[in-house]
Every structure is written in C-alpha cells, then in structure tokens.
Write a structure and sequence with these properties.
313 residues, two-stranded antiparallel ribbon, 8 helices, disordered N terminus, hydrolase
C-alpha cells in the first residue's frame, strides 16, 4: 500500500488538496488531441437517414482556457419508445481511448444491424475534456465515474444521466466502455492519493481484457457472452499473483464484480437487467489501437446479442 506519494509534484503529504492545489493541477494540464477532429467530426458525418444525432448538453470549459464541448448521443436506425433499449456509453474516463473509438466504430459499422429489434442509444464520449487532455478527472479534479448520482459534482455525469432520463426509455442493457492502463499506477492512483491524502493500493495491471459486472445483478452468462466474443479478437486477463484482478476477486474467467450503484459508477445509474463495464489493456505488447477498438465492438455485440436472445425470443 502507498499513502500520498511524497514525489507527487502537487500537494503536501498528509493533507488533502484544497482549491489552490486543484488549480495547480489544472494549470499543468494541456490539450494533446482534438475532440472536435476525432469525435465530433465523425458524428457530424453520420447519414441522417440512418442515425439521429442529438446534442444533449455542453460543458463550458472555455473560461478555464480550454473549449466549450458539445455533448452528443446517437439514436441508431428505427427508434420506438415502447421497445427495450440498449445503452452504450464511452469516454466516461476520457483518457481511455478505445472506449471512445470503440463506441464510434460500433455506431458506424454495427449499430443499425440491431435497430429493427431494439433501440440502440450511444453516448460515445461523456468526458471530452478528459479525452483532449488524456485525463481521468474533469478540470475540477473530479472523477466523473464516481459521480453518477442526483445533483452530483460532475456535469459530465449529470448531463449524461439527464439525457437518458429525459428520453424515458426502458433500458434493458447498459455496457460502459473503459480501459485499464499502465498510467493508472504511474499517474492516476498517485494523483488520487495526493488529492485525498488517503492510502491507495497499487495493484498489478492485468495484461488483457476483462469485465466488471454488478454484484447486485451479476448475470454470469451475460458476462461469459462478452468474454467469448472478445477472445476472438484479443486475449483475456488472467488473475494476478494474488489471485485477483485490480484488487478484486475473480468471479469467473475474466470477470470481477463491483457494487456499482453505491460507488456512483456510470454502469450503475440505470436499472438495466444486463450491465457490464469493459476493461481493455492498451499497453499490452500484443495490443494495438485497432485491436483495442475491435475488442470494444466485439464486447458490445456479444452483450447485445445475448440480451436480445435472452429477452426477445
């Protein structure tokens, strides 16, 4: 275990960050890629006869020296409010690249294939600032993926929840696309320890894909369907030397569970029967950006096909 890393460049050991430290952290962030070129441009070129593109909000970060970011969701193909809906979310942690690009690839190449049977709704990049600056947090040093509750501190989470709620849909399945990266240990967990002055364990980063189910609704066969689809594309993570994955016991091959609602995770904000968080490992010597995005698409398709087969026979 580690407490506040004395080598971390921001903060005082043993004291949680206040406004000054958060501003110091923000001043060290910079744009490294473009949400507008990489994400928005692709969304704006979607064929309007096959997709409905909805701007569901905007993040006003221009006053912080960045941009105001329009937020989009996509309805694929036919959309009928009395049918079950499949929800796909990406980019809750903006630095987790394949979560965003996998969602976009799914929209462009596969989403309409299912739209005669279910509604397909995709929020491909919930945290555009995090995408551009390659960050887990938003500009206020808040983790959106611990903020999915009513009137929470992250607009990224609040606006995504409002978008889904306002549509008034019956969410059958929610799959949330993530990555586990080497920077989780080298940057993001040390930053968390520094921000909160609370011990953080540095776990072994798993080499391979795994999923995080919901302990309140685990659906092991559903998780297996995802793993079986993804292992056609990339390798599945084994347990670490302690028999766990990121500190949690393995429930089945390639699967751990979190209690998502009390943790205020994106995967917990709906009452969907089927819930999973994907975790791709982009730093593997056997992975490429293309493989990572293909793994996300395979996970979505495997999940979706299981949910349809199990509930809409």
């Amino acid at each position: 275990m580690t407490t506040l890393d004395p080598e971390y460049p921001i903060g005082t050991p043993g004291r949680a960050w206040d406004t000054d430290e958060k501003l110091q952290w923000l001043s060290a962030q910079s744009k490294k890629r473009s949400y507008f070129d990489d994400v928005e441009k692709r969304l704006l070129t979607l064929n309007k006869s096959d997709y409905e593109l909805i701007k569901y909000g905007e993040l006003g970060y221009a006053n912080l020296g960045f941009s105001n970011y329009p937020l989009y969701c996509v309805k694929a193909g036919k959309f009928e409010n009395d049918r079950p809906t499949i929800l796909v979310t990406g980019g809750v942690h903006g630095y987790e690249t394949s979560g965003v690009h996998g969602a976009l690839d799914f929209i462009e190449n596969a989403a309409t294939s299912y739209s005669d049977t279910v509604n397909v709704l995709v929020l491909p990049c919930i945290s555009p600032w995090g995408y551009e600056t390659i960050n887990r947090w938003n500009p206020y040093a808040i983790d959106p993926n611990r903020s999915f509750y009513s009137e929470g501190p992250a607009d990224e989470a609040n606006l995504a929840m409002k978008c889904v709620s306002d549509l008034g849909l019956n969410i059958l399945m929610h799959i949330d696309l993530h990555e586990t990266t080497d920077t989780d240990n080298s940057e993001f967990r040390p930053a968390l320890a520094a921000r909160d002055a609370i011990e953080q364990g540095l776990w072994e980063i798993p080499d391979g894909f795994y999923t995080v189910g919901d302990s309140a609704r685990p659906q092991p066969r559903f998780q297996t369907a995802i793993i079986d689809a993804v292992k056609q594309v990339t390798h599945i993570a084994d347990a670490d030397s302690s028999g766990k994955i990121i500190g949690s016991k393995i429930e089945q091959f390639g699967v751990i569970n979190y209690d998502k609602k009390p943790l205020f995770l994106c995967g917990g904000f709906t009452d969907a029967i089927y819930v999973s968080t994907t975790e791709v490992y982009p730093d593997s010597p056997n992975a490429t950006p293309e493989i990572c995005s293909k793994a996300q698409v395979a996970a979505i398709k495997g999940a979706l096909e299981y949910a349809i087969a199990s509930n809409l026979r």
